[in-house]
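Researcher: Next entry in the queue.
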Amino acid sequence: MSEPTNKKDNMMYPSRRSFLGAGSAAIAAAAIAALPAHGQSRQNVDKAEHDHSVSNPGQENQNLLAQNPNSNTPPPSDFGDVGPIWYSFDLVKKRIQEGGWTHQVTQREFPTSTEIAGVNMRLTAGSYREMHWHTADEWAYMLYGNARVTVLNPDGTIFIDDVSEGDLWVFPAGYPHSIQGLGPDGCEFLLVFNQGAFSEDNTFLLSEWVAHTPTDVLKKNFGLPESELQKLPTGSLYIFPSDLPKSLAEDKAQVGGRKVESTPQYTFKMRSMEPTKKTAGGEVRVVDSSNFPTSKHIAAGLVIVKPGAMRELHWHPNASEWQFYIKGKARMTVFMPVGNARTMDYNANDVGFVPAVAGHYVENTGDTDLVFLEMFATDRFMDISLNSWIRRTPVETVSAHLNLDAETIAKIPAEKQEVIR
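Model: Structure for this entry, 421 residues:
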């Protein structure tokens, strides 16, 4: 670990623990405004933890501190600045309408996330996210409940399907689609877009298009009398309540049946698929263009980590990682040059970020399973295991770098584990 070597360096790199007096304000500043996290020697840390230096005589947000112990008092291995790696959907406002709500974490809230934006949405039973399309691909994971989705292909064929908890869908950019909550209690889902600055409020809505098209043009286009056009919406619907639909089979038959049925499939049963990798520590399910050809621009992994286990030390060579935490508690350290490292804590509904090629791990720090999604703005899921790299490199080379003998090196797992206990 790099350390200051002179007075000038000491002024440039103050101790992280010197920020303890700021209490919860330090957490917010570090997480949101990327306050640098500077390291110090183990000796100085040990001394500080046993004298009055660690005390905070001022105000503190105890609830926030309890959720972020590794941000407020980081491990001595943390050093420098890697930029924000944490945010939470619980910090952003909800857009609430009759029929559901939505809120989003984009590059505006999470500046380091330049490739991916996320939206969390709820629809009550029967309610619609109205017919619309986007400038970005839409990848979605069902967190709760059931929904019916539709998407129209450019050749005029239509895809209609029902999705449940653990399923996902992909809608390509420009392809019009709709989502409707089903019984008994609608649904909640995570939407991911392959544009960091994407905004869910900036989409092409059917209601707004007809509201902003001259009446005589609509009359000519639809072949309808003007009296019927008076019924059209005059503004945005966005999320709105409606009746529950007919059965899936009836809806498919009503629009034309097999002759207009889409060949491409836009839904995938992610949670119920066989694990891509399963170990004593947990399991990983990977969905990308190799097993879901429609997903050309977003790859994802659903990771389950048992208590005491961790997503092994690794990095991704082809894209930055955008995470969504579904269940449990975790901590992650992100490593960047030159000798920089940042540790943060994560809870359900939090978002994590790892820059492309940055080393990291995700450790389960709770007493229940940790469940989270890893997502990438690319067509293929790729990762490189530190253990595998060490074991696939000649022993003499590794020994020269790590001062470990051959017998010790042989104890390190040779195969990629993904999740390790």
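Model: The first strand starts at residue 86 and ends at 88.
Researcher: Noted, moving on.
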